[in-house]
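--- STAGE predict ---
source: upstream dedup step, 1 unique chain passed
mode: sequence only
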Amino acid sequence: MKRYFFFFLLNFLGGLGLCAQDLKQSILHYLTDKQAEVGVAVIFNGTDTLTVNNDNRYPLMSVVKFHQALAVADTLTALSETVDHKVLVTPEDLKPNTYSPMRDRYPQGNVTLPLRTLLEYTLQQSDNNACDLLFRLYGGPQATDRYIRSLGLTDFAVQVTEDDMHRDTQTCYDNWSTPLEAVRLLEIFLKKPLFAQPIQEFLKTTLMECEIGTDRLPAPLAGTGARIGHKTGTSDQDASGRWTAINDMGFVLLPDGRYYTIAVFVKHSRESAENTARIIADISRLVYSSFSKNR
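--- STAGE serialize ---
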């Protein structure tokens, strides 16, 4: 009986490998005429791994707000605080020339908000002022970098704030990751009890209620019964007309209990913003279709 189970397991794992190889070829074929550098990483059910163009560094842009949220959550847990901890938002925290729904809602500042609201602004709406306020309160980019490295990850860096990137666009490249390291971080978040349980559940729910980037990873999942939690990142165009980076990463939960984590990072795209988002959506469609058909 053990022998039959052993051979079944070998065939099952081998099938997963073949599935991943076929999928990789499909993605590579799809990318042949795209005017962009595209990196992809997927981990299926925490085991089988697929990567495409993973050896490059991709600017994280607002994807870094996920890394930051984990570092903030770690500090809250260490201090026995919750996401209901109150924070004063001053007028100085509301810089005018950056994307900030929080500033639009509270233009005068001098408002006290719970941390949960700041994290919802950063994770669901990519608010740059809320991000830099959290950096100011919780040790800056360096503290976030140290925390993520403490989890055993190395192929990334967090070195600059949103304001740094606004003042010098070249610093966008100082916050970077490989796609595989991004999905490894998602795997750790999903599988390990990193924080107090209510905080970890809050972060997971917040990612699953993300309000932007619906034309990226989530686009092909509508109506399938699959659920997604994700974090986007979007740059401006550089002087040559390229998008420095348009990204999405997340976890997909299938109705049958299986899941996968995925990152699609698009660097130096000369496609339109809409077409670049469609690249991410099309790769998401290829991955979902392959995984959902191979049980």
